[in-house]
Automatic annotation (TrEMBL):
Biased composition, class Basic residues, residue ranges: 394-403
Organism (species): Microdochium trichocladiopsis
Name of the protein this chain belongs to: Cytidylyltransferase
GO biological process: coenzyme A biosynthetic process
Keywords: Nucleotidyltransferase, Transferase
């Protein structure tokens, strides 16, 4: 359940500081994130908070003319935000995994392209294709509109972003004054010069991206991994084109029987469903309905669950993993493997195995590790919340609550 009214809430965050290091991100985003998350916590119901960071994320392609995203910068920003979210939620004892029930806040970070001071026309009910999963603010405002509350920060950039969003949402949804909630803004740098001199490295997008994991009690670490992976997808501009594919290997139930607190491990079907529901927020853009309140279109088969997004231009295949390599050694046709620090060795082993088969190795991208240590001005060691956001920690808490 997204909120007491069945709808998610939206937090509009202006462009990040430059450089976007941990201290700068904490200063800019900790106050509004804390305010929105704590205001949404409801002991009788779970809430969903969609966090939109609006900045000029799209880069013109060097040769193809299609837009690209700097993968390193984008995933680093998302990692920083989920790190802050993890610290806030651990400190306030708020669960932030998907479908965690009463008292939880399922926070989801989305990057939306927006240039400060840019002039937009009124939003139209159509999708603006750019070859990436990142939409511009106009498309987002036109196709996502069933919000419970809309939080915006109390500074110049925050009001500019709110004004742009309101103007672009006109004709699709009337935003009531009681929906708008102003919250404390953080301290950030003046971004005008930084935005004018964007020299972020481009990242080549590809038709097929793969990753693997357990995805039990889908938490911020999982959310980061999935978000970083879909930044690499080359999305077809035409509905008639062959769809790009995101292959998510999800560990089968049999392989998890020896996990700690195994009785609280979610079933494969539920874990796959949660992956697709989370990705619905990032991938789905539709003229009809609203991605935040509608279920993704899925096709379920034995050991496989496929989600169809953006009018068939993106397919997400959740595949059951029964061995160490999963689909990477059963499907030759794939381009990229996304790993975390914990699964780096597994990525190298995959390429060794593929080479034995005479197949091309996969290009490996590694996401940042969530830094869930509390930031403090004092020189003494601060509390590390990393152990509180793992799947094992979530299962342990559920086990202890039964005692």
């Amino acid at each position: 359940m997204a909120s007491p009214k069945g709808r998610p809430s939206l937090l509009l965050l202006p462009a990040p500081p430059n450089p976007a290091d941990r201290l700068a991100l904490n200063a800019a985003y900790r106050p509004p994130l804390t305010s929105a998350i704590t205001k949404l916590q409801n002991k009788q119901a779970g809430a969903t908070l969609v966090i939109v960071v609006a900045a000029p994320f799209l880069l013109p392609g060097a040769s193809s003319g299609e837009s690209t995203v700097s993968w390193a910068d984008a995933q680093h920003l998302v990692a920083g935000l989920y790190s802050i979210i993890s610290v806030i939620c651990a400190k306030h004892d708020i669960a932030t995994e998907v479908n965690a029930g009463p008292g939880s806040v399922d926070a989801r970070v989305i990057l939306v392209d927006h240039e400060v001071g840019s002039q937009h026309g009124q939003a139209k009910p159509f999708i603006r294709h750019n070859g990436t999963i990142v939409t511009d603010l106009e498309t987002f405002a036109a196709t996502h509109h069933s919000w419970d509350r809309i939080f915006h920060v109390d500074n110049e950039q925050g009001y500019e972003l709110l004004s742009s969003f309101q103007r672009l949402a006109e004709g699709r949804k009337t935003l009531r004054q009681d929906q708008l909630v102003v919250i404390e803004g953080g301290v950030t740098l003046n971004l005008q010069a930084a935005q004018a001199e964007r020299t972020a490295p481009q990242t080549k997008t590809v038709p097929i991206v793969c990753l693997g994991g357990t995805f039990d009690h889908l938490h911020p670490g999982h959310k980061l991994l999935l978000t970083a992976a879909v930044f690499l997808l080359k999305v077809p501009r035409q509905q008639s084109s062959k769809p790009c594919r995101f292959i998510v290997g999800i560990t089968g139930d049999e392989l998890l029987k020896q996990k700690k607190y195994a009785e609280f491990v979610q079933s494969w079907d539920l874990r796959a469903t949660h992956v697709l529901k989370f990705l619905n927020s990032l991938l789905q853009v539709s003229d009809d309905g609203d991605p935040e309140t509608e279920e993704p279109k899925t096709i379920a088969e034995d050991g496989r669950m496929t989600g169809i997004f953006r009018n068939g231009t993106i397919e997400v295949e959740c595949v059951m993993i029964q061995d160490a390599f999963g689909p990477t050694t059963r499907q030759q046709e794939m381009d990229v493997l996304v790993v975390s620090g914990e699964t780096r060795a597994g990525g190298n082993a995959v390429n060794t195995e593929r080479q034995k088969l005479g197949w091309h190795p996969l290009e490996i991208f590694e996401v940042d590790v969530l830094d869930a240590e509390e930031i403090s001005d004092t020189p003494t060691k601060t509390e590390d919340y990393s152990t509180k956001i793992s799947s094992t920690a979530i299962r342990r808490k559920k086990a202890e609550s039964r005692i």
